[in-house]
Amino acid sequence: MAILITGAAGFIGMHCSLRLLARGDRVVGIDNLNDYYPVQLKRDRVAKVAAEGGGRYRFIHCDFADHAALEAALDGLEIDRIIHLGAQAGVRYSIENPRAYAQSNLVGHLNILELARGRRSAHLVYASSSSVYGGNETLPFRVEDRVDHPLSLYAATKKADELMSETYAHLYRLSQTGLRFFTVYGPWGRPDMALWLFTDAILKGRPISVFNGGEMRRDFTYIDDIVTGVVAALDHPPSDDGQAKAGGSVSPHAVYNIGNHRSEELTRLIDLIEAACGRPAIRELKPMQPGDVRETFADIGAIERDLGFRPTTDISEGVPRFVDWFRDYHGI
Ligand SMILES: NC(=O)c1ccc[n+]([C@@H]2O[C@H](COP(=O)([O-])OP(=O)(O)OC[C@H]3O[C@@H](n4cnc5c(N)ncnc54)[C@H](O)[C@@H]3O)[C@@H](O)[C@H]2O)c1
What is the CATH number of domain 2-330? Predict the structure, then answer.
C-alpha cells in the first residue's frame, strides 16, 4: 500500500513511518519542519526513516496549510490511505501563539480532508487528543462523553477537526478514524513534554517545575503501543453500513481513545526518571498552568473491542527506554 503520513518528521509520524516501511508499505511523508522545537531533531528523525526505508520512503518538505503547495507537492503520487498526524501540538503554546493552531489544525485539517476526498482515499486516520475532554470529572474518559468544554485553544481545534471529519464522512462517505491520543512518550519524543524536560533537567542538575504541586495524573502511552493502534486503525476502515460507530457516528467515521488505561501520578513518573538517571530531581512546586487539565484516564473499551488494541508497556519499562535513548542521542 502507498500511505501518506503528515507530520512525518514529528515524534509519532516517525515511528508510524518506520513500522509501515518495515512491513513493506510505501510511505510518502510530508512535514513543514517548523521550529516549534529544534528542527535538527526533526531532520534526524527523517534521516533515520530514510536510511531504513530506502526506495520505499519519500520525504517532501511541504506546508499542508497551503493547499496549492500541498496539491503541487503530491501531484502524480499514488496514495491509497492517509495518516494525518501533522499539527501544531502542545497545550501551553496555544496560549502564546493561537494563530499557529488555526493554520495547521483548522485550515490544515480541511486541506487534508479535501485531499482525501479528491483522491477518493480508502481511509483517513487522523490525530485527535485526550485534551478534548477538558475538565471532565467522570473517569475514565469515554468516547461517548460530551466534549463541549475545552480548556485550551489546542483542545478546541482538535474537537473542531473531529467535527469537520464528521461532515466529510456524512457528505462524501469518506471513511475516517479519529484517534484521541493520551500523553504519548518514548524514544525520539518531544522536547516540550514533561518526560523530556524532566530528564534533561535532572541529568544537568537543574530544578524541575512540578505543576499543581505534583497533584496531576496522566494516562501515559508508550510509542510502540500507539503505533500498533494507529496501524490497526489504518487496516480497518469503518464501513459505510449505517450502523453506529465508536463515538456515535452513523457515517463511516469512528473515534477512539488510544491510551494505556492507567492513570499515573506525576510523582511516580518523576521517581522513575530519577531511578533511570541515577540522580535525584530538585523539585520546585508550582501552581497549575492555564489550559492544563489535572487528570487524564482513557477508557479503551471501544478500540479494544473493534481493533483488538491492548497496550503492553508499563511506564516502569517505557521510562528507562526513553532515558537510555535520550542519553545516547545527546551523548550524556
Ligand atoms: N504526543 C502526544 O502526547 C500527543 C497527544 C495527543 C495528541 N497528539 C497529536 O498527535 C499528532 C502527532 O503528535 P507528535 O507528538 O508527533 O507531535 P510533533 O510536533 O512531534 O509532530 C507534528 C509534526 O507536524 C508538523 N507540522 C505542523 N504543522 C504543519 C503544517 N502546517 N504542514 C506540515 N507539517 C506540519 C511539525 O513540523 C511536526 O513535525 C499531533 O496531531 C498531535 O496534536 C499527540
Answer: 3.40.50.720
